[in-house]
Amino acid sequence: MTKTTILALAGAISGLLMAAPAVSAADAMPKVKPHHEKVLTDCGTCHTKENAIGGNAFVVPKDETCIACHGDYKALAKKTEGLDEPNPHASHHYGAGVSCTACHKEHEKSVVLCNDCHEFKYTIK
Ligand code: HEC
Ligand code: HEC
Ligand code: HEC
Ligand code: HEC
């Protein structure tokens, strides 16, 4: 091994050591979706003391939290009535009887519940 290889290796190893904690810290802390980054800077807007279960506030927030800013199903259905696919906010199965977070996830990829059974094409966020 030459002196330069040893130096390069040492550099690579310390680089790894420095990079590792930064990556795991970012992984451990759930982030909000890009569309919420500017408006939801306080985790407590969704994770309130009131919806905490057994002292843990990090439970799925109630629909009222989302509705306070986005309007109710009626208002949302109006926004999505022009789609080529059936209105996800006014389905004949659920109407308003399904939770926002059944489809819209905050810290993971959102899912379209309907597509458990159908193959609708939406661009859900
Ligand atoms: C403090 C107000 C606030 C709360 C609470 C909130 N949002 Fe939002 N949300 C916004 C704003 C502002 C935007 C960006 C502007 C827009 O698209 O309406 C946004 C964007 C979105 C978008 C993307 C819309 C688009 O067309 O790009 C979705 C989906 C969404 N929010 C769902 C939710 C859900 C589900 C919840 C509850 C878990 C929630 N929001 C809670 C304010 C809020
Ligand atoms: C059954 C799944 C489902 C549920 C439940 C649901 N959504 Fe959506 N939502 C969608 C889909 C799919 C879209 C995107 C449609 C498209 O543009 O392709 C959407 C779009 C949106 C948008 C963007 C609307 C726009 O301006 O175009 C917002 C905001 C939103 N949803 C909020 C909510 C909130 C708040 C709730 C609860 C009250 C909720 N959604 C419940 C599936 C759902
Ligand atoms: C717009 C509302 C909203 C905001 C703001 C929000 N969360 Fe969440 N959080 C959720 C929802 C919804 C879930 C349920 C799982 C999911 O959708 O990813 C959740 C679940 C969690 C969980 C349970 C574990 C998991 O990932 O499922 C933790 C921990 C958490 N959030 C931490 C945070 C932290 C930390 C912040 C601030 C950086 C934050 N949340 C901001 C809506 C929110
Ligand atoms: C558990 C499976 C399942 C899920 C989830 C589901 N559907 Fe369906 N859907 C069906 C079945 C089965 C039919 C045919 C029988 C019927 O009309 O009820 C159907 C029929 C339909 C029809 C045609 C109804 C008509 O008037 O003929 C539409 C539109 C529809 N679904 C929309 C949706 C939407 C939007 C969602 C999500 C919000 C959804 N479905 C979620 C099983 C499902």
Termini Cα gap:
52 Å
Strand content: under 5%
In terms of per-residue confidence, which ranges show pLDDT below 50 for 5 or more consecutive residues?
Answer: 13-22
The major β-sheet equals: none
Total DSSP helices: 3
* Number of β-strand runs: 0
The gross shape turns out to be globular
Whole-number radius of gyration?
A: 22 Å
Sheet/helix structural class: mainly alpha
What is bound: which ligands?
A: heme C
Mean pLDDT figure: 85
Order of helices and strands: HHH
The helix fraction, in percent, is 25-40%
Please give the oligomerization state of what you see. Answer: single chain
Short description:
With 125 residues, the chain is an all-alpha fold. The protein has a domain at 1-30.
Describe this structure in words.
With 125 residues, the protein is mainly α. It has a domain at 1-30. It is 33% helix and 0% strand. The protein has 3 helices and no strands. Mean pLDDT is 85; it is low at 13-22. The structure holds heme C (4 copies). Residues 35-36, 39-40, 45-46, 61, 65-66, 68-70, 100-101, 104, 106, 125 line the site of one heme C.
Reconstruct the topology from this structure.
Elements (H helix, E strand, L loop, with lengths): L2 H26 L34 H8 L2 H7 L46
Task: Record keyword descriptors for this entry.
125 residues; mainly alpha; 3 helices; globular; binds heme C
